[in-house]
Structure formats: structure tokens, C-alpha cells
Automatic annotation (TrEMBL):
Listed name of the protein: Uncharacterized protein
Species assigned in the record: Geotalea uraniireducens (strain Rf4)
Lineage of the organism: Bacteria, Pseudomonadati, Thermodesulfobacteriota, Desulfuromonadia, Geobacterales
Domain of life: Bacteria
Amino acid sequence: MKKENLEVLLEDISSKFDLVLESHAALDRKIDNRFDELNEKIEHNSFMIGALNKKIDAVDERLSKKMDAVSADLSAHRADTEAHHGVYIG
């Protein structure tokens, strides 16, 4: 093979190798962008889940208080009913 032919071949290989490197860099940037988008979505979803957990905790607390009040009312009613045992004739 002549020197000129070898130089042309090496230049062609070099340009193709540069193209592969540029494509690799572009793909790397694209992957990084998708990774950043995914991280943003995960952070947003984590925030939303945290807010939902706070709402659920608040509802649980309100229901617990209402259940305690109903239980106290029921206990008072039962005590009153038992105190008047025999008064009511059916």
C-alpha cells in the first residue's frame, strides 16, 4: 500500500472515529437531560406524597378525636341507662 493511500485511509478512519465520539457525547448529554427530568419528577412526587401523608395524618387525628367523643358519649349513655335500670318498663 502506498503512503498516500495509507494517509487517506487513516484520515478517513480518524474522521469516522471523531464522528463516533461526537455521537457518544450527544447521547451522554441526552441521557443526562433525561436523568435530570426524572430527578425533578421524583422530587415533585416525593413532595406530593409528603403533602398527602400530612392530610391523611390530619384526617386520622380528627377521626380519632371524634371516635373518642362518641365512645365517651356512649359510655355516659350506658352508665345513665344502667343507673335507671328497672325504671323503664316496656
